[in-house]
Design brief:
Blueprint lengths: L3 H9 L2 H9 L2 E11 L3 E13 L2 E6 H8 L1
Antiparallel strand pairs: 1-2, 2-3
């Protein structure tokens, strides 16, 4: 049984991307919402909590895709 967080990640990224990340030792743990520069929440975007080498960071969708490439 998967968690809601895992279901969201799997709906945002395809299996190939998640597999490439896993091979590099990178895991997308959950998604979150971040405001646009200046703190504008109406123009914010989804971001992802990524764990790499036991260090977590928040990355945008495109940054996660670049990590998988």
């Amino acid at each position: 049984m998967t968690s809601v967080a895992q279901d969201i990640i799997r709906s945002h990224f395809n299996r190939k991307t998640l597999t490439a990340l896993k091979k590099k030792g990178i895991e997308v743990v959950k998604s979150t919402f971040v405001p646009a520069p200046g703190g504008d929440y109406t123009r914010g975007e989804t971001a992802y909590v990524v764990v790499e080498n036991e260090t977590s960071s928040i990355r945008s969708y495109l940054e996660v895709l670049k990590m998988a490439a």
